[in-house]
Structures are given as structure tokens and as C-alpha cells.
Design brief:
The complex is a heterodimer. Chain A is α/β, with parallel strands linked by helices. Chain A has 18 helices and 11 strands. In chain A, 55% of the residues are buried. Chain B has 7 helices and 4 strands; from the N terminus they run ααααβααβββα. In chain B, strands 2-1-3-4 form a 4-stranded mixed sheet, with helices on one face. In chain B, a hairpin with a 2-residue loop joins β3 (135-137) and β4. The chains are: A alpha/beta, B alpha+beta.
Chain lengths: 437, 166
């Protein structure tokens, strides 16, 4: 089954990256802004939205929510301003795919955002970009400047009467701001606190107006869908999850980087062919499939799997944000979880008690184990705290930290027990993949 | 009034025009970022000037400043070195790199060298996982970092004449 599906359609990484391939002239030579022209001149906003719904496109930020269904909440004739925000706050550890688009194909995002803005009747759109992204900011701002100069954005685009401005709003260092409602709070110039739903953001979002927040990769598919049609998009990937995914893979593979795969691509082929296998020929211990908040799968578990939610989810994990981390044999999972829990503790926004207190507890417990003062009961306590957070916080961060913890504890409990019993790591605390002698 | 805010006022006015009506509250983050780029940190007088101009409550500025990790209320070294130590960077040697840089400069994590030249901090995932580990020098990414490369960079910056005010 795996081999039958091994097709290689590309939607985003369709050209060789050079020093100038991100510029407008080259993007136009590849056909950029043709879809915008098509949408504005030959389609109504409703037709564009219908096409996106028919394509079956799902969110690429981690939650895989159907884009068309999110858009459908927006009422054309409600007499209110609507806003569109591209989520470029990419911060889920292991994830760096949106950065590829921002740096290498910024016009694909700009064009797609303009088409989305047309479909949603948006006059002002925003790109919320994490504050640390200096180079991606310069690339996208450069692309916007080029598009303004060419009359492709702003007032009366291409003489069609449709007007839309896009501005970049830069964050200032907060993981939680990648959560859509926290992102909205941040654009309002406040602390990036997530908000309770309902109301949904598509009902009351930015400054209480209907707002669509879509991930950068999700949006970047829109131009292609409008240009080639929903049917062509559905022919890529699987019927339940059409299209491609950008997988950013890091850790102990020989060739880390961003790879565009069709949904349904064989997992092993990505790791062993595309990425050149593991460093120094090491064996694969496990993989974090889609950002550290997704549950770890062992090397044996992924052996026959394809990169398709319909296969990854029954295996007990998720494709998440596409931020894959490959981990070699000999890596200490206790230390790895310690790194994760320090991160979650640092990033908890502090609004909800289970997360604010729970992260601190988890972090202190794992520090205690690593310091050689752990007790076996600590492991049960960590599991209990992880479960306590699930569903009891405003945003998904509490859940996510819990999944990560439970995933590692379930599969590598013996490493934790060893450290507690012996007072030291089974693998000398190794996080790096060393050449075996 | 804060000289820094006064000097940035024309730029801030232009930015305000680009936002839709009623978005004044959104000005906080971009204004603070620019103030910090000019001064190196955000001072009390900057906040007072921004509060007077924007009419956004002071508490909102304070909340923002204490929430986002990139904002600084105190001066730091002339050169800021930030090392990511999240999962992918740690798996590619970030912990050794951090240890080396701290030892070499004689500072602990978060510290500034005695001559006020370098501040070393840690960062969480910066999206450089595929080119790990990353060291950010004054907001510019230096990727696929190792101890030798870091040493060369620090040598270079140590030799560079005086430079910017801190």
C-alpha cells in the first residue's frame, strides 16, 4: 500500500531556490498573481470560498480544521469589518516550515492572502510574525513592498475595485501567541492571553470583529487551489486529507530540512531516502511526528506507516504542525523530556491554574529525577498532573505538554525508573548522536 | 519627554496611519520594539511619553513589557548572544555550545561580561531546528553553529572597535 501512494506532487516547493527566486519578477515568471487575477476578474467572493471548501483543505498549523468551514462562518452582509490574520508565529519546537515559505516564496503567501481577503471581504489583513524572525520579516516586507509598487495590493487592485492592505505585526517572544486567540490579543497590543470560546474568533475576533486566523502554509495553498481548481487539489494526497504537507525534519537525520510530501507518503522513505537516514548510521529510536506536543512514536511503530492522519492518529499520535524530530538510539529520553518541560514551564501564560501550576510541578519533578533525587511515585504524579490538564485550560498548551509527557512516560518509563534507582542516566544523559566507536 | 520617543514620533505617526481606525491599542508592541532598537532597552520615560501620546493605560504597557521575553527594562551588553537550547538544538550540541560560550566569556547564563561588551542568554525554539544549533547575535541568526565558529565570531566582535552604545 505504501508504494502505491508514493507520488510526488508539489504545490509549494515547485522551484529551485536561488538568491533571487523569492523576488516578484521571478515569482511572476512562475505564474504568481495569475490566480489573483482569475479570482478578482472571473469569480465572486462566494465562488472563491466555495472552491476552497470543495478542495477539502485543512489547517496546517496543527489542528487540521477544515479551512472552508472556518471561512463559512463569515457573513458577507453583516455590515461589519472582517479581518484576516496569517499566523506566522511558528514556535512549536521542531517546526520551521512556514519560515521556508516566508523566506523563499513570500509572494505565494501574499497572493493567497489577497485571494482569501477577497473571499472573506476583508479590507485589512495582518501577518502576525514571531519577533525573532528577522530574515523572514525582511523577505516578506520586501515582497509586500514589491507588490505595492506593482499595484497588486492596496487600493483598487488590478483596477478591479477590490482594495486590501496587508501589514506585518511582529510579536515579541511568546510561544502561546501562536494560538489563534492569543495571537488576536497580541495584535490588540496586549499580553498574548488565549480567550475562551465561544464566541469563536470568526464571530468576535480582532477588536470584537469577525476574524479568520489561518496558518501561513494553509493560506499559501489558496492561490494554487484557485488556479488549478478544487478537483485538482483533491487529486493530491488522500481523499480525507487532500494536498501536500511541508514536513520540517530535524534532530539526528543526516539531511535535516523542509520537505514537501503528498499526504500518504511513506514515512521510512522520507527518513531513509530523502533525509539520508540517521547520523553516523545510528538506529532510529523514535520520532516526534509533528511538533514536540505530539506523542512520540517508536522506530518500530513508524516502520510501515504512511504520513497520513488516517494512519498516524490510530497509531496514537498526530501529524500536528509537521515539525518532525528524529531521535537516534542512545538518546536519553529523561533529559529530552526535561528540555521539553523546562520549555513548557517557561511559556505557560499563567492564566489557567492547571497549566500554570502543573507546568511548574512537572518541571520540578523532572529536575529532581535528573538531580538523582527522584522517587518512583514521581512518575505516577507526573502522569496524574498531565491528565489533570487535559481539557481544563483555555488553550491547548496544557493538553499538549500533557501529551508529550504521557507519550514519553508510556514508552520509556524504564529509563526514568533506571535513573531513579541508579541515580544516573541509562545513556549518560546523551542528547546528541555521537559516532559509535 | 523621552528623546528616544520624540525622535521616533514621525515614524510612529506614519505607522498609526497604516492601521485601521480604532487600532491605537495595537501600537504598543511596535512602538516598544522601535524604542528598544534605538535605546537598547525600554526606560520609564519612554513609557510615560507613549502613554501620553497614545492614551493607552500605563498598566497595559507594563503588562506587555513583563509578558514578552524580547522586551528589556534594563540595559544589557553591547552585543547580545542568544543560544537556543530547545529539543532540536540540544540534540545538535546546543548545551555544549552554551557551556563553552559562558566559560569563555566568564559569565553565567543571562549574565553580562565585566566590560559590558557581551550578554549571553538562552532562547526557546527559534525555528532553526534544521540548521541547529543556532546562536543569535543581535537579532541575526548564525546557524549550524559549533564551538569553533562561535569562537571565531566572538574573536571578530571582540576586535571590532567600540561600536554602538549600550
Amino acid at each position: 500500500m505504501a508504494e502505491l501512494r508514493a507520488r510526488d506532487a508539489k504545490i509549494l516547493m515547485t522551484f529551485p531556490v536561488t538568491a533571487t527566486s523569492h523576488l516578484l519578477a521571478e515569482a511572476r515568471a512562475r505564474g504568481a498573481y495569475g490566480a489573483l487575477e482569475k479570482a478578482l476578474r472571473t469569480m465572486t467572493p462566494q465562488q472563491v470560498a466555495k472552491e476552497v471548501t470543495a478542495s477539502g483543505l485543512q489547517g496546517r498549523g496543527g489542528a487540521a480544521f477544515p479551512t472552508g468551514r472556518k471561512w463559512a462562518v463569515i457573513q458577507y452582509d453583516d455590515g461589519q469589518p472582517h479581518y484576516l490574520c496569517a499566523n506566522a508565529d511558528e514556535g512549536e519546537p521542531g517546526t520551521f516550515k512556514d519560515r521556508w515559505i516566508l523566506e523563499n516564496s513570500p509572494h505565494q503567501l501574499v497572493e493567497s492572502m489577497l485571494i482569501a481577503a477577497y473571499a472573506l471581504q476583508v479590507r485589512h489583513a495582518f501577518v502576525y510574525m514571531r519577533g525573532e524572525f528577522s530574515a523572514p520579516f525582511r523577505r516578506l516586507q520586501g515582497a509586500l513592498d514589491e507588490a505595492y509598487a506593482a499595484g497588486l495590493i492596496g487600493e483598487n487592485i488590478l483596477g478591479t475595485g477590490f482594495s486590501c492592505d496587508i501589514m506585518i505585526y511582529r510579536g515579541a517572544g511568546s510561544y502561546v501567541c501562536g494560538e489563534a486567540s492569543a495571537l488576536i490579543s497580541s495584535i490588540e497590543g496586549k499580553r498574548g492571553y488565549p480567550r475562551n470560546r465561544p464566541p469563536r474568533l470568526t464571530v468576535k475576533g480582532l477588536y470584537q470583529r469577525p476574524t479568520v486566523v489561518n496558518n501561513v502554509e494553509t493560506l499559501s495553498n489558496i492561490a494554487w487551489i484557485v488556479q488549478h481548481g478544487a478537483e485538482a487539489f483533491k487529486a493530491v494526497g488522500t481523499p480525507k486529507c487532500p494536498g501536500t504537507r511541508l514536513i520540517s525534519i530535524s534532530g539526528h537525520v543526516a539531511r535535516p530540512g523542509v520537505y514537501e510530501i503528498e499526504v500518504g507518503y511513506p514515512w521510512r522513505r522520507l527518513i531513509y531516502d530523502d533525509c539520508g537516514g540517521m547520523l553516523h548510521g545510528a538506529a532510529l529510536k523514535c520520532v516526534i511526528p509533528g511538533g514536540i506536543s505530539t506523542k512520540v512514536l517508536t522506530g518500530a511503530e513508524i516502520e510501515t506507516l504512511n504520513l497520513d492522519p488516517a494512519e498516524v492518529e490510530p497509531a496514537g499520535s498526530s501529524m500536528g504542525s509537521g515539525g518532525m524530530v528524529a531521535i537516534a538510539e542512545g538518546t536519553c529520553m529523561v533529559r529530552l523530556l526535561q528540555v521539553m518541560l523546562r520549555f513548557y514551564h517557561h511559556e505557560s501564560c499563567g492564566q489557567c491554574t492547571p497549566c500554570r501550576e502543573g507546568m511548574g510541578w512537572l518541571h520540578r519533578l523532572i529536575d529532581r529525577i535528573v538531580a538523582g533525587q527522584g522517587r518512583l511515585e514521581d512518575l505516577d504524579m507526573m502522569a496524574r498532573i498531565s491528565k489533570l490538564q487535559d481539557g481544563n485550560t483555555i488553550c491547548g498548551m496544557g493538553d499538549a505538554a500533557g501529551y508529550a509527557t504521557l507519550g514519553i512516560l508510556a514508552k520509556y518509563r524504564h529509563e526514568f525508573e533506571y535513573w531513579i534507582r541508579e541515580g544516573r542516566s541509562m545513556y549518560e544523559g546523551n542528547l546528541e548522536c555521537r559516532r559509535s566507536s | 519627554m523621552s528623546k528616544v520617543v520624540a525622535s521616533l514620533m514621525p515614524e510612529f505617526e506614519r505607522l498609526r496611519q497604516r492601521f485601521p481606525e480604532g487600532f491605537d491599542s495595537s501600537m504598543t508592541l511596535p512602538c516598544l520594539r522601535r524604542v528598544q532598537e534605538v535605546r537598547g532597552h525600554v526606560a520609564d520615560e519612554d513609557i510615560r511619553a507613549l502613554v501620553d501620546w497614545l492614551g493607552v493605560p500605563r498598566i497595559q504597557f507594563e503588562e506587555v513589557l513583563s509578558y514578552y521575553t524580547q522586551f528589556r527594562r534594563q540595559p544589557v551588553g553591547q552585543v547580545r548572544l542568544e543560544i537556543c537550547r530547545n529539543v532540536s538544538c540540544s540534540m545538535r550540541g546546543a548545551e555544549r555550545l552554551l557551556g563553552h560560550v559562558c566559560r569563555r566569556l566568564g559569565v553565567s547564563e543571562g549574565g553580562t561580561t565585566g566590560d559590558g561588551r557581551f550578554t549571553v542568554t538562552t532562547a526557546e525554539c527559534l525555528g532553526s531546528c534544521g540548521t541547529a544549533p543556532v546562536m543569535v547575535v543581535d537579532d541575526e541568526y548564525h546557524e549550524n553553529m559549533d564551538i569553533d565558529k562561535a569562537d571565531r565570531l566572538i574573536d571578530q566582535m571582540s576586535r571590532a572597535e567600540g561600536g554602538r552604545g549600550g
